[in-house]
Amino acid sequence: MSGWTIGIIGGSGLYGVEGVEDGHWVEVHSPWGQPSDELFVGRIGHVKVVFLPRHGRGHRISPSELNARANVDVLKRLGVTDVLSISSVGSLAEERAPGTFTIVDQFIDRTRGRPSSFFGSGMVAHVSMADPVCPRLSTLARDAAIAAGATVHDGGTCLVMEGPQFSTRAESNLYRQWGCHVIGMTAMPEAKLCREAELPYALVGMVTDYDCWREGEEAVDVAAVIRQLSANAEKARALVVNLIRALPEVRPASPIDTCLDAALITALDVRDPELLGRLDAVAGRALR
Q: Of the residues 120, 141, 214, 242, which has the fewest C-beta atoms closer than 10 A?
C-alpha cells in the first residue's frame, strides 16, 4: 500500500485542474513517440496530481492521431497509480440528455488502425478486458460528480468510433440496437493501454449532444458541442477536485496493480531485448 498519484486525462472541455499546489508543466520523453503535450504536475492535499491534455493545449490533435501509447507511458513514468479520464461523448439513449454525465463501465471498440498494445512480437501479453474499468475509481468518480451537482448515470456502454467525422444516421441507429448508451472517439485504445500498464482506469463521459439518431432533430455539429462543453466544464472541474479530496491518505492495493502477472506468455529465452527496453515503465515491475 502507498499514496495516490492521480493521472487526469482531460478531453474536450477540460484543459486543466483547479486548486493544484506547486503546479508546473514538465516535459517527459517516451520511447513510444511524442505524447500529446507536457504534463501539469502538482498536489491537492496529500494526493499527487498529473494532468495531461489529451488533444494538446489548444486542441491541436485529432482523435485518430493521438499517440495513446506515449500518453499512457509518460503517466506511468511520472509514478501515476490511477487514471481518471474525462471525455465528451454523444448520447445514444433518450434519458442521457446533454449536460448529464455517464460513468462508463463497458466499451465496444470500433476504431481501426490505432496501435492498441504495448506488446507484440518478441514479448506477447494478453490482459483481460472483461471488466475494462476500475470499479473503485468509477464509484469515486460517480460520487464526486453528484457532489458537483451533475446528473449522473452510473454505468453504460461507450461505443468508441474512429472519427474524426461524426456518425451516419444508420450507424447511430445500429449502435443503439447494440445496446450502447454513449459514443465517443478517444477512450480506445486508451483504456486497453492503461490496463496493460497496470493502471486502474475510470471514464466519465460528459454528454454534449444526441448524435444523429433522433428523428426530426438537427444532426450534431461542432458549434452545438462547444456550447454544451462550456456548460459541462465547471462541473467537470469540480468533479476532479471532489474526487481527489475524497481519497484516503493510504491507497489500498488493486488487483489491476499486478494484472500482468497472469498475462505475460513469451518464454524468457526468446524475449526481444529492444521491446523489453521500451516496456521499462509500463511493464518493468512484471518483467524484472
A: 120
211 an active-site residue?
yes
* Residue 227 counted as domain residue: yes
User: How far lies 226's CA from each of 66, 157, 220, in Å?
Assistant: 20, 23, 11
Active-site residue, from 73, 109, 211, 269: 211
Instruction: Give the domain CATH number at 232.
Output: 3.40.50.1580
Q: Does the residue 1 lie in any domain? A: no
Among 69, 52, 67, smallest CA distance to 275 is for 69
Measured at the CA of 15, the angle between CA 9 and CA 20, to 5 degrees, comes to: 85
Q: Is 209 a catalytic residue?
A: yes
Tens-place pLDDT, residues 110-136: 999 999 999 999 999 999 999 999 999
Identity of the residue numbered 46: H
Residue 212 lies in a domain: yes
Percent of the chain surpassing pLDDT 90: 87
DSSP classification of residue 120: B
Helix (H, G, I), strand (E, B) or coil at 205: strand
Cα 250 versus chain centre, distance = 23
* Omega before 273 within 30 of 0, i.e. cis: no
Q: Which residue reads 452510473 in cell numbers? A: 154
List the grid coordinates of 133: 474499468
pTM of the full predicted structure? 0.95
Contact 33, 45 (CB under 8 A): no
- Three-state secondary structure call for residue 172: helix
Catalytic residue selected from 209, 261, 269, 272: 209
